[in-house]
Design brief:
Largest interface: A-B, 64 and 64 residues
Oligomer: homodimer
Distance between the termini of chain A: 60 Å
Low-confidence stretches of chain A: none
Radius of gyration of chain A: 18 Å
Number of strands of chain A: 7
CATH class of chain A: Alpha Beta
Strand content of chain A: 25-35%
Structural class of chain A: alpha/beta
Helix content of chain A: 40-55%
CATH superfamily of chain A: Ribonuclease H-like superfamily/Ribonuclease H
CATH topology of chain A: Nucleotidyltransferase, domain 5
Number of domains of chain A: 1
Shape of chain A: globular
Chain lengths: 182, 182
């Protein structure tokens, strides 16, 4: 099973694709889409969406695993994150892929065995589980690989997995107002 | 000048397109994309993005005006709204359109003349300014028309207008890790 993990962020979106066979994992690729500090916010969203769409087409994963938002940050940055996460999810659903969502605590529990593990412990475990010679960088890439590994460890009972249906079914009604022609 | 207003929401996204010539306004169309209660969250995002992209292609506006998020609601619903707003902005930037953002207070001030006006007052003024025979429904459509009217009243000094640049320029670096071939 090929799993594509995403750690969304408006400044940097980490991604990591793994292949899981039972308890064995193999890295396919990982990295981060870093957006320019000079780019406008909509342009950043476009870069994230375009980048992820291209990567999903290249990797052909069976599903996408995405980190759930962490609610404890301030509202402003959480809202920005919501935008980035929205276009990331869109890229996945446009590719017709099921999407599994995990909270940071679920990811840590699945990878390290402890929901309040430190970021460094997660990175070390990602390195170990994937047999890498060095820590995955940037840390967003390691986080994305961690969420992919989390998904490979069997679906957590609390995971929200969205299986794609037919396009168009999701919109129930479009109400149009059009002025009558004179 | 043709302006396409958007009032984003994950359950219902209002839209309204107007044509402004000096102080005169004419409605082109308005409505709302209502997403099915049975649809998954990613499917709702897909429906919003697909719907808005089709409407922008149909209306050929000169710019898009979008309501800024209201920060006082609870964090959970604001985060959901962030996702919807992200895919709405993406549809606009993919269409190569400049995006202007206005807070609810700016919209009310521009349309009613008072930043703390009631929703009903805004709807009545939208009806009056566009010469409609009835109140625009649903209220999300009226809100979208209001933000379009707000933009037509000259760019508010505080408006954040993003002008599109070349695609691809927004992403500065892509760091890829790929395992060496054995």
């Amino acid at each position: 099973m090929r799993i594509f993990g995403i750690d969304p962020g408006s400044d940097r979106t980490g991604y990591g694709c793994i292949e899981a066979e039972g308890a064995r994992h193999r890295i396919v690729l990982s990295g981060a889409i870093a957006t320019s500090a000079h780019a406008s916010f909509p342009e950043k969203l476009l870069a994230i969406h375009t980048g992820l769409s291209a990567l999903l087409a290249e990797c052909c994963p069976d599903c996408v695993a995405i980190e759930n938002l962490f609610f404890a940050t301030n509202a402003r940055s959480a809202l920005k994150l919501g935008h980035a996460r929205g276009v990331a999810m869109l890229a996945a659903v446009e590719a017709g892929l099921p999407i599994a969502e995990y909270t940071p605590a679920e990811v840590k529990r699945a990878v390290v065995g402890y929901g309040r593990a430190e970021k460094q412990q997660v990175q070390q475990m990602v390195k170990l589980l994937l047999g890498l010679s060095a820590l995955p960088t940037p840390h967003d890439a390691a986080d994305a690989l961690a969420v992919a590994i989390c998904h490979s460890h069997g679906l957590v009972a609390s995971a929200r997995v969205s299986v794609p249906v037919d396009r168009g079914k999701a919109a129930t009604s479009w109400r149009h107002y059009r002025p009558a022609r004179p």
